[in-house]
Structure formats: C-alpha cells, structure tokens
Amino acid sequence: MSTKDDQPSMDTQPKKYNDQQQGHFSLVRNFYIADVITLMNGVCGVMSVFASMRYLLTSDIHDLYSALGFMPFGLFFDFFDGRVARWRKNSSILGQELDSLADLISFGVAPAALAFAVGMRTYLDTVVLTYFVCCGIARLARFNATVASQPKDTTGKISHFEGTPIPTSLTLVAILAYFVSQGRFLDALPGQLIQLAPTWDLHPLVFMYALSGTLMVSKTLRIPKP
C-alpha cells in the first residue's frame, strides 16, 4: 500500500496539458493521409500558376501545356482524398478547410491565370476573371458554412451541390486546351478582341468564365453529387 509520501507533491508533480487546453493546434499531429492527398491538389494548382507565369516570360508552348496538365492531376487528388477519408473513416475540420483552399487554387486561381496567359489580358478581361475567382471563393465559403446542415446518406456524403462545384471550371480549361492545340490563342483567340469604348477592350471568350462563376454561386441550381 502506498503512503502519502509515495505520491508526488502538488509542487513537484509536472503539469500536463493537451493541445486544446494550451490553445495550441498541432498541425502534424492532426494530419491524416487524406489531408496529405488534399495538399497534393494544392501543389498541382500552384505548379499550374507558376507554369502560366513562366509562359509569360518564355513564350515556350511547353510551359503552357504544363499549366494545362497540372489541373487535371489536381482533380484526381481532389477526387481521391474523399475516397481515402471515407475508406479510413477519419476526417476533420482541418481536412475540410484544406480541401476548400486547395480547390480555390487549382480550380479558381489556376484557370484564371491560364486565361491571362493565353491572351485574355485587357483590364476588362481581368475584371471578369477576378469575378470568376471571387465566385469560387464565395461558393466554397457557402459550402463550408452549410455542409453540416446538408442532408447526408449513411456514408456521410451529401446528396447534392448547390450551384456547380468549383472543379467544373476544368471545362473551361478543356476548351482552352483545345484552342491551344489548334494554335488559337493570344492574337488568334476565338472572337478576337472587341472595343467597347476607346480605351475599353474585351475578349468575348472571357464571358465563359463569367458564366461559370455565376453558376457556382447559384442558389437554385442543384447538382446531384456522384
């Protein structure tokens, strides 16, 4: 039987606090395999943006093809991380936020940077492209804010999306990839350049980005989730 002297005193016993008590969030300790896969989605998006920037400096068509190619890989990782999370039956708020941030880069910023690289570079073009990216931000924020209240099946999947998911922007990327393969970019962009006023030029092709962004933030459009 232990006596009182066998127990460490209150003054000498080390105090142990978990991360939440200390107000500290351990990033590494809270990482799951699915989160690492999500980060790879973000890596693809960033690499695509850099490839678009390199093309602006080098005019090397291989850089443009690299910018195009990284985004479908981002979609693969975006699809795969959810499957891994459900397979391993672990997910977290961290993973949800990582997914949204990675999607914003790969399917929002990267397609906009690509559009700029292929020739949509006027001031009005950049206004429309900014609108597209902001719609992506708003769409992802709305999803995060409402996902807890969305109806789900037995596996935890929601039944539908409100508005088009941001990865649908890869449709725009596919269209631009076709034009690039046909040599129809820069001064040869379909629709050419229209002048709305003496100093206000616009590429009509940029309106497909405006449409994509508008569909993302639609409240009435519901897309079944696969």
Automatic annotation (TrEMBL):
Catalytic activity: a CDP-1,2-diacyl-sn-glycerol + L-serine = a 1,2-diacyl-sn-glycero-3-phospho-L-serine + CMP + H(+)
Compartments where located: Endoplasmic reticulum membrane
UniProt keyword annotations, A-Z: Endoplasmic reticulum, Lipid biosynthesis, Lipid metabolism, Membrane, Phospholipid biosynthesis, Phospholipid metabolism, Transferase, Transmembrane, Transmembrane helix
EC number of this enzyme: 2.7.8.8
Pfam family, one: CDP-OH_P_transf
Superkingdom to which the source organism belongs: Eukaryota
A GO molecular-function descriptor: CDP-diacylglycerol-serine O-phosphatidyltransferase activity
DNA damage in keyword set: no
Pathway involvement of the protein, from the record: Lipid metabolism; Phospholipid metabolism; phosphatidylethanolamine biosynthesis; phosphatidylethanolamine from CDP-diacylglycerol: step 1/2
Major place of residence: endoplasmic reticulum
Biological process annotations from GO: cellular response to calcium ion; cellular response to potassium ion; phosphatidylethanolamine biosynthetic process; phosphatidylserine biosynthetic process; plasma membrane organization
Ranges that cross the membrane: 31-52, 64-80, 101-120, 126-143, 164-182
CC per GO annotation: endoplasmic reticulum membrane; mitochondrial outer membrane; plasma membrane
Membrane topology: Multi-pass membrane protein
Stored PROSITE patterns: CDP_ALCOHOL_P_TRANSF
Record-stated family: Belongs to the CDP-alcohol phosphatidyltransferase class-I family.
Protein name in the entry: CDP-diacylglycerol--serine O-phosphatidyltransferase
Species of provenance: Lichtheimia corymbifera JMRC:FSU:9682
